[in-house]
Every structure is written in structure tokens, then in C-alpha cells.
Amino acid sequence: MSPNTQDEKAREQLIDLAAEFYDQFAGGEIPEMKLPTRTKSNIVFDEDSNVWVYGDRTSTRSANSVRGARKLLKAVYTIDFLAKQLDEDRSSTLRELYYLSESWDNEEAQFSDQDESNQLVEDLEIVSKVTREDFHMRPEESGATLMGPLELREQTRRGEREIHCQKDVGEGGYQIPNNPDTIEFLDHDIDFVLCVETGGMRDRLVENGFDEEYNVLVVHLKGQPARATRRITKRLHDELDLPVVVFTDGDPWSYRIYGSVAYGSIKSAHLSEYLATPEAEYVGIRPQDIVDYDLPTDPLADSDINALESELTDPRFQSEFWKEQIELQLDIGKKAEQQALASRGLDFVTDTYLPERLSDMGVI
User: Fold this and answer.
1) What is the pTM (predicted TM-score) of this model?
2) Where is each Spo11/DNA topoisomerase VI subunit A N-terminal domain found (predicted)?
3) Which CATH number does the domain housing residue 24 bear?
């Protein structure tokens, strides 16, 4: 679907939503908007698709109370703003939407804080089945990048441009745009996709030429990955049939980074099938690596221990591998960063650690 067609579809579905409120009014009904209940207890792990999805419980935003009426008023003003934005082929950030509401002529429609405006945009995504990227809503820049043998065509405000993600970029790589569905994959020599948590490790891999030696596309997750990063990773897997592996620090928060790439996150459960790559595999750092390589470590904090214990009951971490690794980490009481591999030399990660691990996994 072309960008213009996507814009038209997004605008139509927003207008349809506003028209539904009008029809309810005209029919003598109290306007309302039904949504999945957005609580942790209503988010379930779908065993068939291996992603987080909303359960059957719903909540109703109804104008039969002052609080409910305010929420619907804010929704109507936001729909009007988004429809005009699409008409004008403009875009804005989630932060700008919050401040823009200060100029709306009805004070009751203005947002009290950015959390409220962010949540409303998510509500509109769920009800209209259109992503915020297709509303032309941007988060603050994530700065996540690609580096590797991929040639693509990107739609920009200055027209199309073709980019090779090694030959046409500097050491920083190609920055993933807010809406990666505007990218067309033209050609590639990629054997697998390696998602890397930290900038330091990403830079080490690129400096050592790992992307060139192994025909790998290095995706810098930049910590907890943004939606655009997860979306392009899924597209690379689904459309180019590429294996995806995730390389993070060895702590419970990093395991959740892997979980969000592979299985989706609770916060974006309504988009899991659009963002998650259930086939993604975890390459490290593993608690067993801390023992085997005698890596420099930090002790587990109480919050780390609580997070690990929570992961033992998390559907995303129920395999024998994860149970063994988490229990081992709780036993040794230690965590380690990716860069701890440098204790064995700057080339250890690219000459030994990753080649051996990826070979064992059948990736190379």
C-alpha cells in the first residue's frame, strides 16, 4: 500500500470513528467508546501466535458521567487534529500533541499531562485499528540504527532515495525512520540479523568489521527498543526470511528487551502481531557465560532479584533454557554487561564469543 493510500485509509477510519459518536447522538443514545481493559490482568500470552494480546474484558468510555464526557471530548478534538494533519501531509510528536492541546478553544478538551495524551493516541489506535505511525504521530527520536549489507529505498519529504546501509552511511549507520513501513527493501547480502542492546557493543562489532565478515545486519536496539526498531526487525524476518538473534546484557531487564523483540510488550499488546518476532533467538549474555568466562560482574540488587523471580512465572520465559539460566543467576547472585567480554580482549566478542555461539545455534 502506497504512503498516500495509507494516509487516506487512516483519515477515513478516524472520520468513521467520529461519525459513530455523531450517529449515537442523533439516535438519542449516550455516546460511548468500547476498548479492551488495559490492565495487566487483561493481557494474555497467546500460545498460538506466541505474542502478548488483550483478553476479552472491555471498558466503556461513556458520556453518561462528567469524567467520561471529558474523555470523549478530548478524543473528538484529537481526531479532528489528526485528520487535519493527514490532510496537510504534516506530522507531529506525541510531546507536541500535548502542548498543542493548550491552544484548543475548549479548556475541557486540553490534556492535563502527556501521559493522558499518549494514552488517548493508543486508545485511538486500538479502536480505529490504525497505528499512530499512520496518523503521522512520532515519538521523540529513538536514534536506533542499522549497519550491514542492505540496500533500501526510503520515502522522504524530498522524494525517494536509495541507500546502502554500509556503503552510503558513516560509522553511525542508517537511522531507522519513525515509520519503517515507508521503506522498500531492494537488495541484500544478509545472512542474519543481530539485534544489539548497547551502543558500545554495536560500535565494537562495526569497528571490528563483524558486519562485513559475517554478512550480518546489526540493529542497534538502543536499550528498550522503540516500536520502529521492532517493526523493521519483524519485516526483515518475515519479508526477507532472515534469522533474528538478540544480544543483550546479562540481567533481568535485558532479558525483557529480548522478550519485547520476540513476544511483544504488555504496553503495546494491541500491536504484538505487527511488532513482535516470535522466531527471534537469544544469543547472550547468559548467566552461564558469567561462570564459564569468569566475567567481571555486579551483584544483583533486590530489584534484580524480584524481576528474575517474576520472570520465572512469565509466559515468555517458560522454556527449560530460561528456567535454568534464571535459576543459575539467582544462585550466583551476579549480573554482567556485554562489554564485560572485553576483559578477554577487544576482539574476543567478534573472534570467539559470537562465532562459537552462533555456530552452536546453527545461525552461521
Assistant:
1) 0.82
2) 70-136
3) 1.10.10.10
